[in-house]
Amino acid sequence: MSIAGNVGLADLPRICPLISRRVQSGEATETRVVNVGNVHFGEARPVVIAGPCAVESRKQTLAVARAVRAAGADMLRGGAFKPRTSPHDFQGLGVEGLKILREASRETGLPMVTEVMDPRLVETVAEYADMLQIGSRNMQNYPLLVEAGKSGKPVLLKRGMAANLCEWLGAAEYVAKEGNLEIVLCERGIKAFPAGEYTRNVLDLSVIPAVKAETFLPVIVDPSHATGVAEMVEGASRAAIEYGSHGLIIEVACDDGGAARPRCDAAQAIGPATLGRIVSFVDSRTGHRAMRKAHAV
Ligand code: PEP
Ligand code: MN
Question: Taking the model in full, what pTM does it have?
Answer without folding.
Answer: 0.96
